[in-house]
């Protein structure tokens, strides 16, 4: 009997069913079910790859990297995004311009819905409008906070930084963790990702409510955030709770929350969530830890530092200034031992595509705003000066050089709050990554550390 001939029709029918199944799955609004199929496929891919190439060297570590913040060491697996030094960030292979064009938008809207970038980072697929709408409904349905978290937020002192309040509230929400309960019940580790998924979805849903409550308490005399509208998307509910009714501000938030969502896995906030999650801390605790890292002035707080710099510049030089006046101010700043905030990046070697996206938004909606004009002037003047110093590898602006100016234009003047917005956005990327961490069964992270004496001995130094 010709076995191949006998099996061919069976295999062809099975292939056809598989294709049909995938087509149905691709259109389904059940994100968890779609993700389960994706995880099964990717687990197999990773297993096969490691079985063949697991012992292959992918680089070497030099002493300067050990002392230099592990810069450039390839040591993490992150599925959601990749940061290329020359091309910038790509989400599952899609650039920011592609995401702005291809991801679903609100009816009549111009900018992509953040729900779409979350779907893309989890599955690798551009979602349909129906799939994005299902996420909006799901997040609206789980946006309420536990009463004890509301009480805690309403009793924080007004001098407690918004990021401290944000982190503390997220930590307190872990009373709701289904992952922690499931782990305590002894569920099999192969299902960890499912409970992580459930927590991540609910955490993302609650973050705008937490953030809006903080904003209202600090800057709007504790006024009510109002009710969640199940017919609105995530960003629209967020801006409504904040108290902003300008549709263009909502469009800005959709763009902002999309482009700030992820920047591969090595930055402080993403790495911290991964690290703490590797100890099987639940998503609430893991995310709160990452937010404490985001609050640092060398990470998410940098957008606030940029606004302080621009405000100081405008105060010293007056309204408009010449390029020569601006150059003198920049040189004076550098010679005093300070940096130009918002310029340079640990990985990028070109203008941050996130900066470009925000610049395009500003050119369309606020081209004559004096602060935007100054940002544009700085963009022209600063890079050549930084190159002239001979000490800067990347003289180009990053995302923080622009975002605060847009928020100022629409009336959000409270600079100390900006990093909270960054945190709400960053949840999309780090939660998608955390789900994949558990799906791939990544172990607790524990690199080897060494003393200086040990390193000297290792390299044969006297």
From TrEMBL:
One of its GO terms (molecular function) is citrate synthase activity. The active site is at residues 299, 345, 400. PROSITE patterns: CITRATE_SYNTHASE. InterPro entries: Citrate_synth-like_lrg_a-sub, Citrate_synth-like_sm_a-sub, Citrate_synthase, Citrate_synthase_AS, Citrate_synthase_euk, Citrate_synthase_sf. GO terms for biological process: carbohydrate metabolic process; citrate metabolic process; tricarboxylic acid cycle. Pathway: Carbohydrate metabolism; tricarboxylic acid cycle; isocitrate from oxaloacetate: step 1/2. The keyword Transferase applies. Coiled coil: none annotated. It catalyses: oxaloacetate + acetyl-CoA + H2O = citrate + CoA + H(+). It is found in: Mitochondrion matrix. Homodimer. NCBIfam families: cit_synth_euk (TIGR01793), PRK09569.1 (NF007128). Belongs to the citrate synthase family. This is Citrate synthase.
